[in-house]
Design goal:
The chain is α+β, with helices and mostly antiparallel strands. The chain has one domain. The protein is built from four helices and seven strands. The strands form two sheets. It has a five-stranded antiparallel beta sheet with strand order 4-3-2-1-7, covered by helices on one side. The chain has a two-stranded antiparallel ribbon with strand order 5-6. 29% of the residues are buried.
């Protein structure tokens, strides 16, 4: 009878290294994909917040949206506007004013000794901590003392920006690294309720995505001036309240 020898089979070191490398590559792809999914979800949530703000004011003013003039706010700041919005719409939801991916908002959540995010928007601006005010996600255009507070104006240039992601740099069309999306872009809410996300507001032609507000209807063939700066696209006498990053 022949003795049969059974060899114990297993992976060689090289085979193990190959398997580990493949698993690492697949894990990296999966993490990258999920990161993109989560980022896209965050952008959609921020877009929905802006749409909710506009829709709520449309309902409040029965189709004719009005923004407050500066003196109508407890404080000329995004926090003051949020409190004014609550008083008009009875909506105290803090998620409208904070962006989940924003490092400033995350810092409030993670700081065990800090104030945290507000459970709801209060009725008095003094009830918000300075860090809570600084973490709000939007810059907001408001009518000045001599401006028309109505958003629906007969402007030849069409809709104009009324809210946009904090940290926009101006003429260069970008957002600074301290903005909620870490400089990778931002949302803009227009006066007609449309919301767009831009990586850079200079646009593909680098002339700017905004039309400079104009009421001059004498020359229908006149070319509308473009700008990358939302402030330059505002109607006459409008101002901006924002957080200095």
């Amino acid at each position: 009878m022949k003795n049969s020898q059974h060899r114990k089979k297993g992976f060689t070191l090289i085979e193990l290294l190959v398997v580990i490398t493949i698993i690492g590559i697949l894990a990296g792809i999966a993490i990258s994909s999920f990161g993109g999914i989560f980022g896209a979800a965050g952008q959609l949530a921020a877009e929905d917040s802006l749409k909710t703000i506009h829709k709520s004011l449309v309902q409040k003013y029965k189709g004719q949206v009005k923004f407050p003039k500066g003196e109508a706010l407890d404080e000329e700041s995004p926090a003051g506007f949020a409190i004014w919005f609550r008083s008009k719409t009875r909506n105290p939801e803090p998620g409208l004013w904070y962006i989940d991916e924003d490092d400033k908002a995350l810092a409030l959540v993670e700081d065990e000794d800090g104030p945290g995010l507000p459970a709801q928007i209060p009725t008095d601006v003094g009830d918000l901590d300075d860090d809570q005010k600084q973490a709000m996600g939007w810059s907001i255009a408001l009518p000045g003392d001599d401006a028309n507070p109505k958003l629906e104006q007969n402007l030849r240039s069409g809709p104009f920006p009324i809210m946009w992601t904090r940290g926009h740099e101006g003429d260069d069309g970008s957002w600074n690294p301290d903005s909620p999306w870490s400089g990778d872009g931002g949302h803009v809410l227009f006066s007609n309720g449309k919301v767009e996300f831009y990586e850079n507001t200079q646009g593909a032609d680098e002339e700017g995505v905004f039309n400079v507000a104009s009421k001059d209807d004498d020359d229908d063939d006149a070319q509308i001036e473009k700008t990358a700066d939302p402030v330059q696209a505002l109607p006459e006498d409008w101002i901006v309240v924002k957080i200095d990053d």
